[in-house]
Design brief:
FMN binding, alpha/beta, 5 helices, 5 strands, Rossmann fold
């Protein structure tokens, strides 16, 4: 299972690297690339305008058919908005919300997400 992610501050990148899984980092320059294997998305919490590259990626070619789940990072101080980008993607695309973590996560967060990815197959 590939992990597709974006990271503006580096927090999400640090989290994803701890997973030890194959990754693709999305940027504005590569958002329209195609993928032909199952993937999850790990996203920070930002305004939709900032995270639109995730939607661009999902909607490119047949990528949507390989989208299996989403996890999100953020700051618990956001209250109800904590992890809203991941929650929105899960809702909009009908995929499971696998996990929410704060900042760059901790070992328990890594373990939880790895278990969820294993369950997905």
């Amino acid at each position: 299972m590939k992990v597709v992610f974006m990271s503006l501050t580096g927090q999400t990148r640090k989290f994803v690297k701890k997973l030890g899984l194959e990754t693709i980092e999305l940027t504005a320059g590569n958002a329209f690339r195609t993928i032909d294997e199952p993937f999850i998305i790990v996203t920070p919490t930002y305004d939709k305008e900032v995270t639109d590259i995730l939607v661009d990626f999902i909607e490119t070619d047949r990528n949507r058919s390989f989208f299996k789940g989403v996890a999100g990072g953020g700051n618990l101080n956001f209250g109800k908005l904590f992890g809203f980008t991941a929650k929105d993607l899960a809702h909009d695309y009908g995929v499971p919300l696998l996990h929410l973590f704060e900042f760059q996560g901790n070992e328990k967060d890594i373990q939880i997400l790895k278990e969820k990815v294993t369950e997905l197959g």
